[in-house]
């Protein structure tokens, strides 16, 4: 087992708990709204924000209960006006005041990590064995999503992900509530992941929309490929049955996905070995 004290330590970042799930779902919806992938896969988000929340809550619960995955959260003191920064449909589901934890802070960012096969970290970072836990949500109807969009996205991205990301540690998701942008939370969550990869001396991969590329490139990820995903026309029957008005677009625009990989930095030598190496080098230069 990998001891907890061998994990990266970054201020404001910690492994998520199951009781964070409600807040995580809200943060994910608010943050991912600004990604073109969100609009590609969830064209009916405006009509069914409750389905979006339920979807993210179920997704992150599944990841947290997976021994080969990690969910991280970033925290800070809440902004009393954070609801104003969420998209309009989501605002209807936001509490009037964010509920803080015992530290006076709220979850403002979330990231998930997929561990490589046979990782020594498997099952030891987040508490498991919570089979009696049940998320209290409405049935996950996925009315905000379009099946065609999900299928096209998977078909287009699967070959590149298989080629460049299979067997790697992966930073699978990263989202920050827009009320807390420009506070460094995305960078800190990313840095936690890459420090873990450096500790374990493994590469880490990521697939990202354009808005995330700057953060990942700064963290040392190098581009492997860009994947183009064709746009599509929304089925008439789904628009009619969901009651979407004329303001809803009939077509979903194409998007592009960036895939990058960061190789681990070499482990630093212990200070005594570094001093000895310098001494040996100096003596050799005298010869």
TrEMBL record:
<dbReference type="InterPro" id="IPR052523">
    <property type="entry name" value="Trichothecene_AcTrans"/>
</dbReference>
<dbReference type="InterPro" id="IPR016181">
    <property type="entry name" value="Acyl_CoA_acyltransferase"/>
</dbReference>
<protein>
    <recommendedName>
        <fullName>N-acetyltransferase domain-containing protein</fullName>
    </recommendedName>
</protein>
